[in-house]
Amino acid sequence: MNRKAAVSKAYVRPMHGWWRRDPFFVRYMAREATALAVLAYAIVLTVGVVRLAQGEAAWNGWLQALRSPWSLLLHAVLLVAMVVHAKSWFEIMPKTMPMIVIGGRRVGAATITRSGWAATVVASIALLTIAWWLRR
Amino acid sequence: MKRSNAPIFWLLFGAGGMLSALLGTALVFITGLAVPLGWPLPGDLLTYPRALAFAQQWFAKGFLFVVITLFAWHAVHRIFHSLHDIGVHNGALAKLVCYGGAALITIVAAVALLSIGF
Question: Across the interface, do A128 and B55 touch by the CB < 8 Å criterion?
Answer without folding.
Answer: no
